[in-house]
């Protein structure tokens, strides 16, 4: 069955459930705080609990692949189950794997995450455009064909990103702005929202770029990295309705109580709603 375009599915999910992405980041410190071992059993219980708590109510769940890969193939198997269970429970799954390589290799990464028969099939994938936006073509094309989404790093939430992403070409156009222009071209004419998004940190003093890409803007950095939902209007301006604020540790620290995880996520959803209605 062919999926509807990711952008349309995301818009619907955000209208229905609110603008929030919760990251599934099983840090060793969180496993310990939840009373779990830093091992495969802990990884599985942690992931299952987050899915049980949130997959039927938040718009997007974003597993961070690194925390599964550190356990090798058995950790990746937990990731496969986590993705499948989260999708089955109704969440859109954005795989945070930040893949990026020459085009021929990018095609294999795209198949790993965006081909429906793949064990890691996800609704969307984060990618790095720093081998040149054109190197992402196989992933962009496969995502479009399968009703999936792509989120390309534009202005990341970490301070170290500045020297690369704010560097400018001879026409004084920053690298980030060029990425955003490419995304806007991919989203041309898409309704109600394009499927090709950008990662723009909520931690930025201001975006300083044109964010009108007709696509979603994933905004990590809220909570543990210091940003709040109140920062969204300053960073994103008129694009706030297309922002998918992303929170990992500041929700996850409330586990393992399912109720407390749900309440924490709901507080963030309410905070975003307050900002968008202001
Ligand atoms: O610019 C970026 C891109 C991705 N991330 C990822 O988001 C989460 C943030 O976790 P918190 O606990 O909410 O800080 C994590 O998986 C990062 O790899 C980001 O932070 N910034």
TrEMBL record:
Known EC number: 4.1.1.23
Orotidine 5'-phosphate decarboxylase domain location: 19-264
GO molecular function, one term: orotidine-5'-phosphate decarboxylase activity
Keywords, comma-separated and alphabetical: Decarboxylase, Lyase, Pyrimidine biosynthesis
A single BP term in Gene Ontology: 'de novo' UMP biosynthetic process
Protein name: Orotidine 5'-phosphate decarboxylase
Pathway linked to the protein: Pyrimidine metabolism; UMP biosynthesis via de novo pathway; UMP from orotate: step 2/2
Stored Pfam families: OMPdecase
Active site residues of this protein: 98
Entry's family note: Belongs to the OMP decarboxylase family. Type 2 subfamily.
PANTHER family: OROTIDINE 5'-PHOSPHATE DECARBOXYLASE (PTHR43375:SF1)
Organism for this UniProt entry: Kitasatospora kifunensis (Streptomyces kifunensis)
Enzyme class: lyase
Xref: NCBIfam families: pyrF_sub2
Gene3D superfamilies tied to this protein: Aldolase class I
Catalytic activity: orotidine 5'-phosphate + H(+) = UMP + CO2
